Amino acid sequence: MKEALLVESGFIEVTQPKQFPVQRSVTADPNEMLTLKFCGMQLEIPISIQRDTLSMIIEVTAHAQ
């Protein structure tokens, strides 16, 4: 779901630290990071970030172009 939001917002590359074959049922490790690359910028964001916070980051980054 997060990846779809990022791609729709114009992020060109979304990398995740690990692939999980099934839905994860444990709390995300707060040290696990998601790397976002967009218009020459690279952001390191905790994978455990809340969806609304991620949406705000996407919006701010899109307007910063």
Summarize the structure.
The protein has a domain at 1-10 and 32-65. The protein is 31% helix and 23% strand.
Written overview of the protein:
- It is a single chain.
- This protein has 65 residues and is α+β, with helices and mostly antiparallel strands.
- It has a domain at 1-10 and 32-65.
- It has two helices and three strands; from the N terminus they run αβββα.
- It has helices spanning 2-8, 51-63, and strands at residues 13-15, 33-38, 41-46.
- The chain has a three-stranded antiparallel sheet, with helices on one face.
- Strand 2 and strand 3 form a beta hairpin.
- It is globular.
- The mean pLDDT is 74.
